Every structure is written in structure tokens, then in C-alpha cells.
Amino acid sequence: SGGINLTGATNLSSLDVSGNARVRGILDVSGNANVDGNFAVRNSKFTVNSISGNVSATGTMDVTGATRLASSLDVSGNTNMTGTVNSGGNFSVNTNKFNVISTNGNVSTAGTMDISGNTNMTGTLDVNGNLAVRNSKFTVNATSGNVSATGSMDVTGATRLASTLDVSGST
106 and 100 in contact (C-beta within 8 Å)? Predict the structure, then answer.
């Protein structure tokens, strides 16, 4: 059987093709396009699985409008963001390494927090372990409460002692 070649504008109210069809130009569809089988662009560059609905793309996806996801976003590579990230839920890094609780803003970290700039606190600083300034310049033992300072202590207000003052050296 031979093929049908159409050139120029051709209007058809319905076209039913039971075999393969090839369009060698632009396919312009002004109505809905229903595809019952898998959909592929250039074999595997962009695919839609007709059963699962899974979409696969081998190139970069550029989106200029808002993107809404009804489920999880899994990213296996690095992610670069230049705007603000707003999260309505909790924020966690590697399950429990760094967490921010959305309802109260509490932050917890499983590792060491290094801060290179100034730190301002308006609430109580609750330290469960020993406190050390510059390794041993000023220390507070968490168990005994003993305080040790290697430098001078200048006090401008009154000083009250509830026990003995033990001085070694000149006074």
C-alpha cells in the first residue's frame, strides 16, 4: 500500500491513522492533544510515561513562572538559589544535623557552630557543659560552678562574697 502525500493547506474534520505517521514540518495543534501511549521528544530527550505519568528530561528546565509541587522535591545534585527561601514547615539538613522548628524558630545543631561575627542575645544563655573563653582564659565548670580566670578582674560595683576570700600573693 502506498502513502498519501498532502501539500498545501488541507482541512480534515477527522483523521484516524492506525499505523505510524510522520510529519516533516511543524505540527500545529490548536485543540487538545490526547496521547494514549508514551510520549517522547527526540527518542529520550523529554519523555512522559503514559502509565505512571513520570516525566524525564535530559536537558535544563527553565521556568519563568511560579512552580507549585504537590509532593516532595528530590534533588540529587547541588542547588543554587539567588532569592529568599520561604519554608512553612520545619527545615532540616541531613535529618538531624541542623534543624529549625517552624512553629517557634528554635535551632538545633548536632555539630559545632562557628560564628565569626558578633553575636547578640536578648534571652538567657543556657550552657549545659563547661564554659570556656579562648580555651582557658575564663572558664566555668558545669558540674561544680567553679570559675577560673587567668587575667585581671576589674569590678566597678560592690562585691559580695558568701564565703571565705582566699588570696594567694600580694593584696
Answer: yes
pLDDT in tens, the chain (171 residues): 567 777 888 888 888 888 888 888 888 888 898 888 999 999 899 999 999 999 999 999 999 999 999 999 899 999 998 999 888 999 999 988 999 999 999 999 999 999 999 999 999 999 999 999 999 999 999 999 999 999 998 999 999 989 998 888 887
Reported residue count of the chain is: 171
Q: Which three cell numbers stand for residue 36?
A: 494514549
Q: Per the structure block, which three cell numbers stand in for 63?
A: 521556568
100 has which bridge partners?
91, 107
Lookup: cell for 70: 504537590
Which residues, other chains included, contact 128 with Cβ-Cβ below 8 Å and sequence gap of 6+? 142
Contact 155, 165 (CB under 8 A): no
Which stretches of the chain are DSSP H helices?
Answer: none
Q: What phi and psi values does residue 109 have, to the nearest 5 degrees?
A: -135, 140
148 forms beta bridges with 139
Q: What angle do CA 63, 64, 66 make, to 5 degrees?
A: 85
Q: Are 97 and 111 in contact (CB under 8 A)?
A: yes
Given the C-alpha cell 508514551, which residue does it identify?
Answer: 38
